[in-house]
């Protein structure tokens, strides 16, 4: 059946292998632009993205023709190849074999975009491990966005 309208918003988090800080500020924007292209080329729309040294957040409106798992795999595989081919990381770059995908409502798009784009300030207060633990607790307990 053809889907005329979809409302599939997903907040993805990919983590570097062993949580190593492999994404440098010097290469961050280039990596973000490449991932934006990957998302767009897979009939999805990227709303916001931020690549931290050991993890990346991005929010997409996903095509119903592609699952979260497939999109995350395409982004991870393609971006790792791009990073390695262009020597944008010291040593061999890879993502962990699992990622996180959090479904959000349309009304929370602005809040999540602001959260993603505010990563540098956010990580002055919380480590990635603390942030990730907060996400897991948040999404298991409530449907209301209240991460600060």
List key phrases describing it.
148 residues; four-stranded antiparallel β-sheet; alpha+beta
Q: Can you put this structure into words, describing what you see?
A:
The chain has 148 residues and is an alpha+beta fold. 43% of the residues lie in helices and 18% in strands. It has five helices and four strands; from the N terminus they run E-H-E-E-H-E-H-H-H. A four-stranded antiparallel sheet has the order 2-3-1-4, sandwiched between helices. Helix 1 crosses helix 2 (68-85). The longest helix has 18 residues, at 68-85. It is globular. The N and C termini lie far apart (40 Å). The model has no long low-confidence stretch (mean pLDDT 88).
Main β-sheet, spatial strand arrangement: 2-3-1-4
Q: Count all strands and give the number.
A: 4
Principal-axes geometry comes out as: globular
β-sheet strand percentage: 15-25%
Query: Helix segment count?
Result: 5
Radius of gyration: 15 Å
Q: Percentage of helical residues?
A: 40-55%
Instruction: Provide the low-confidence segments as ranges.
Output: none
Average residue pLDDT: 88
Q: What is the SS-derived class?
A: alpha+beta
Main β-sheet: number of strands, strand sense, barrel status?
A: 4 strands, antiparallel
Q: Distance between the terminal alpha carbons, to the nearest Å?
A: 40 Å
- Could you give the order of the helices and strands? EHEEHEHHH
